[in-house]
Design brief:
The chain has 304 residues and is of the alpha+beta class. The protein has 12 helices and 4 strands; from the N terminus they run αααβααααααββααβα.
């Protein structure tokens, strides 16, 4: 137990008490704590509360084919590009890239989401491309100094940027479930927007596959017309039947590439601002500034 004696607990406790009595338990520190509380309340009041909105998806597995069980892909992105099999992680990355693409943003823009995000919610189609942009003075000054023009109106590219900057996606460790989430000050808007992004991405997947199947059918008929080999003709005919079956399976209103485990929903309470964290951080920062100031005043002669 000799090493405990070397620590000198009593001496250290006395030094700690002296520090608190000299720098913490003083009038200035108490004043700073009160100021931090007022500052925290002000920050909380001016900060817009935001709710956590999320949805959980799972990649749908589907086999669409003829009697030979031809499979058309078993992941979200395979259905988007009709590609061959790939790992779940790669499928997830490609699917998210598609969701954040300009094509999906353009389709959402045409549905009026640009006005819901950047405008006043008026759904007049004539105003979709006439939503004025409001720039900061620094942005206007930078454009004037560097000699470039700022866009006067919002476009689908701005909606694409909004999706990329606000919607967060992640896949679980088992590469099975995909969580799509965002923070929104309006619960109803956040739920509807995430739902629209998911469904429009799925609709684009279906339309892409239908268009691709139609192209394959058209090219197959051209090859069938000139083919003189019965085996090849039979294979082409089989492929045509497969593509027709794909189209028949895709032309419906049901989701195709994903199915929703947990539909978009919002947290009951806002996740930001965090009242406890805001108050605690303000107290720590201002108390640290108070202690530093007092330490400097009492030791300035020794510091220089």
């Amino acid at each position: 137990m000799s090493f405990l004696k070397k620590i000198e607990f009593k001496k250290k406790i006395e030094l700690t008490k002296g520090f608190f009595n000299e720098y913490v338990l003083v009038k200035q520190s108490v004043v700073m704590l009160v100021v931090s509380l007022i500052l925290s309340l002000l920050i909380i009041q001016i900060t817009e509360p935001k709710f956590y909105v999320s949805a959980t998806l799972r990649e749908a597995e589907s086999s669409i084919g003829n009697n030979s069980n031809v499979t058309t892909g078993n992941s979200v992105i395979n259905k988007l590009i009709a590609g061959s099999g790939s790992s779940s992680a790669n499928s997830y990355n490609r699917a998210i890239s598609n969701m954040r693409s300009y094509i999906v943003a353009q389709r959402l823009w045409e549905q009026g989401w640009g006005f819901k995000v950047f405008g006043n919610g008026d759904l007049d189609p004539e105003d979709f491309n006439n939503i004025p942009k409001n720039y900061k003075l620094s942005e206007r000054l930078g454009a004037w100094v560097l000699g470039y023009k700022l866009n006067q109106y919002y476009t689908a590219h701005d909606l694409q940027d909004f999706i990329n900057s606000t919607i967060i996606s992640r896949i679980d460790l088992q590469n099975t479930n995909i969580t799509i989430s965002t923070l929104s000050s309006d619960k109803d808007f956040g739920i509807k927007f995430i739902n629209a992004v998911i469904l429009e991405t799925d609709n684009y997947a279906k339309e892409y596959l239908i268009a691709k199947s139609n192209q394959i059918i058209s090219a197959s008929f051209e090859q069938l017309a000139v083919s003189k080999n019965s085996a090849i003709s039979a294979a082409i005919s089989n492929n045509i039947n497969t593509e027709y079956f794909k189209i028949a399976s895709l032309e419906n209103d049901m989701p195709y590439s994903v199915y929703i485990i947990d539909p978009p929903h919002s947290s009951e309470y806002p996740v930001t601002p965090n009242i406890f964290a805001t108050v605690l951080s303000s107290m720590i920062i201002l108390l640290f500034l108070s202690i530093s100031y007092l330490f400097f005043l009492k030791n300035k002669d020794d510091l220089w």
